[in-house]
Amino acid sequence: MIKEVLKIYMERGDFFHQLILEHLEISGISIIIATIIGGILGVLISEFKKTSPIILGITNFVYTIPAISLLGFLIPFSGIGNTTAIIALTIYALLPMIRNTYTGIENIDTSIIEAAKGMGSTSFEILYKVKLPLAITVILAGIRNMVVMTIALAGIASFIGAGGLGVAIYRGITTNNTAMTIAGSLLIALIALIADFLIGYGEKIIKRRWRIK
């Protein structure tokens, strides 16, 4: 089977190269949008705590919906293709981003916040210079998990006409070509591992620069 998979890579190199680029595009856009929106929502519910049960409850509920079902629900509104895949992946990616941002800020020692207030810091200065730096390790952990999850979930996007490496998996399943299915799955796993390594490396640099243990 390994020889068959390697043979497919050799013979269909251009095909897989295109799928990899599509997979990175779909995943990348979803990750960027989820990071921005999730980060903002996480900060907002930490500042306005009465909204936290509502926001977290909604995201937790959506997270329980099977991915393939969510894709199906979105088709009547956004059609088939990459747009629907990006919307669905972004929705799924929001939960770890919101939860980790909120948790990271909430776990900060209140005495540190009070000390910053006592020194005359504004709410924005406390958020930017105290809360976010102290919460960064938890936030980065959320981003790391979210990135790996999004890259993996993007593999099912082909079932609603989107691109990416899921196309190879789908073709392999429908044509009973096990080697093609494995080839697509291995590349998704490889991309996820590389992304996890790069974010982990970036996390170490940030911790070193900010002198975080």
From TrEMBL:
<feature type="transmembrane region" description="Helical">
    <location>
        <begin position="182"/>
        <end position="201"/>
    </location>
</feature>
<feature type="transmembrane region" description="Helical">
    <location>
        <begin position="54"/>
        <end position="74"/>
    </location>
</feature>
<keyword id="KW-0812">Transmembrane</keyword>
<protein>
    <submittedName>
        <fullName>ABC-type proline/glycine betaine transport system, permease component</fullName>
    </submittedName>
</protein>
<dbReference type="InterPro" id="IPR051204">
    <property type="entry name" value="ABC_transp_perm/SBD"/>
</dbReference>
<dbReference type="GO" id="GO:0031460">
    <property type="term" value="P:glycine betaine transport"/>
</dbReference>
<feature type="domain" description="ABC transmembrane type-1">
    <location>
        <begin position="20"/>
        <end position="199"/>
    </location>
</feature>
<feature type="transmembrane region" description="Helical">
    <location>
        <begin position="80"/>
        <end position="98"/>
    </location>
</feature>
<dbReference type="InterPro" id="IPR000515">
    <property type="entry name" value="MetI-like"/>
</dbReference>
<feature type="transmembrane region" description="Helical">
    <location>
        <begin position="26"/>
        <end position="45"/>
    </location>
</feature>
<comment type="similarity">
    <text>Belongs to the binding-protein-dependent transport system permease family.</text>
</comment>
<dbReference type="GO" id="GO:0005886">
    <property type="term" value="C:plasma membrane"/>
</dbReference>
<dbReference type="Pfam" id="PF00528">
    <property type="entry name" value="BPD_transp_1"/>
</dbReference>
<keyword id="KW-1133">Transmembrane helix</keyword>
<dbReference type="GO" id="GO:0055085">
    <property type="term" value="P:transmembrane transport"/>
</dbReference>
<feature type="transmembrane region" description="Helical">
    <location>
        <begin position="146"/>
        <end position="170"/>
    </location>
</feature>
<keyword id="KW-0813">Transport</keyword>
<keyword id="KW-0472">Membrane</keyword>
<dbReference type="InterPro" id="IPR035906">
    <property type="entry name" value="MetI-like_sf"/>
</dbReference>
